[in-house]
Amino acid sequence: MSLGLFDHQDEFIYSEAKFPALISGYGAGKTTALCIKAIRECGLNAGYTGLLLSPTYPMVRDTLQPTLEEALRNVKFNYQYFASEYRYRVY
User: Fold this and answer.
1) Which of 1, 30, 41, 87 is at a distance of 20 to 30 A from 52, taking alpha carbons?
2) How many helices (H) and strands (E) would you count in the chain?
3) Helix (H) or strand (E) holding 47
4) Percentage of the residues of the chain whose pLDDT score is greater than 70
């Protein structure tokens, strides 16, 4: 399945760098790339805990969380969201 990624997103997602970074302008797909990279890391590191964050809670609520859920649905991963803990379990 093609997710229609830009080259800079693809490079970030598959980067082997210890501290990968994607720096670009508004609307360039940074959050989408982060979420897809996180899902990829879930597969590579099953059983471990990971952390995604944004500078403020409204940014998590309005951007990061909906993008993560959309990405999980697009790749057909099952997940549970535990709202009281702000935690996802990805299967």
Assistant:
1) 1
2) 4, 2
3) none
4) 97
For the chain, what percent of residues have pLDDT higher than 90? 81
Please provide residue 63's backbone torsions phi and psi, each rounded to the nearest 5 degrees: -125, -60
* HSE-CB for 33 with a 13 A CA cutoff: 20
pLDDT digits (tens, 9 = 90+) for 48-60: 999 999 999 999 9
Query: Cβ distance 21 to 8 under 8 Å?
Result: no
Residue 54, Ramachandran bin (φ over 0: left; ψ between -120 and 50: alpha; else beta): beta
| Burial class of residue 5 (count of CB atoms within 10 Å of its CB; 0-12, 13-18, 19+) | middle
- pLDDT at res. 65: 96
